[in-house]
Write a structure and sequence with these properties.
Blueprint: H1 3-32, E1 36-37, H2 38-43, E2 48-50, H3 56-69, H4 85-94, E3 98-99, H5 105-114, E4 115-117, H6 120-127, E5 131-133, H7 142-152, H8 172-175, H9 183-192, H10 203-212, E6 213-215
Antiparallel strand pairs: 1-3, 2-4, 5-6
Length: 226
């Protein structure tokens, strides 16, 4: 093979490699510049949720955060008082906004001002569909008695003077043999469901389902006598 032929082949190979590299870079660039709706990005983030219309406590938190930033990035104008409808509407409209990925400023702003943590209560509603949270604070109700019985008899608990218990209830020593649920247990159930968690394997989620929920009861069907 002559030197001229070798040079020609090498040049051709280099050009081909260069072409492949350009195509690959172009594909990567195209992928990186594809826009996606904030709602779509949020659906892939199990740790965060859009704040619901009626979740006033969450709106208070994020509105205070927005107001205290003193930037008014969404040009809302009046920043006094409680979270205005304009603020909530701005958050709602952002769900349809297409952005360049989860690292974009627009998406980060949405998370900061329009989202909340996923809570154990969310996991229960979505993954324990045959269960409902216990209601009320009547320690002598059948539901709370049954829940307390399940908790106090769990094999992980230890009774006696130096006994320990799963949730470290402060009055465990004096209450573990009682039939009615102590207020500390009811309060713990209430606080657990508000705890941030997006993992169905989280022990706190599993135990909260076990001790703070009951089977759904089906209401009797109405009869038509007409």
């Amino acid at each position: 093979m002559t030197t001229a032929v070798k040079a020609s082949l090498l040049a051709g190979g280099a050009a081909a490699a260069s072409g492949i590299g350009a195509i690959a870079y172009g594909d990567l660039l195209s992928f990186q510049t594809q826009k996606e709706a904030i709602s779509s990005l949020l659906s892939k983030d199990p740790a965060k949720r859009a704040i619901g219309t009626t979740e006033e406590e969450e709106w208070k938190k994020t509105w205070a955060r927005y107001r205290d930033s003193k930037k008014d990035i969404w040009k809302l104008g009046d920043l006094s008082g409680d979270a205005p409808t304009e603020f909530k509407n701005a958050c709602k409209s952002k769900l349809d906004l297409e952005v360049f990925g989860s690292d974009s400023k627009e998406y980060k702003d949405f998370l900061l001002y329009c989202s909340r943590d996923t809570l154990i209560s969310d996991l229960i509603k979505e993954n324990s569909k045959g269960r409902v949270l216990l209601e009320g604070t009547d320690a002598s109700s059948t539901d709370w008695q049954n829940a307390w019985k399940a908790y106090s008899e769990d094999s992980r608990n230890q009774k006696g003077e130096s006994g320990t218990n799963i949730w470290n209830l402060s009055d465990w020593k004096t209450q573990n043999s009682q039939g009615s649920a102590p207020q500390s247990f009811i309060t713990k159930c209430s606080s657990n469901i508000k705890h941030p968690s997006h993992d169905i394997h989280d022990p706190l989620y599993i135990d909260t389902v076990k001790f703070c929920t009951k089977d759904k009861t089906t209401a009797p069907a109405s009869t038509n006598n007409g």
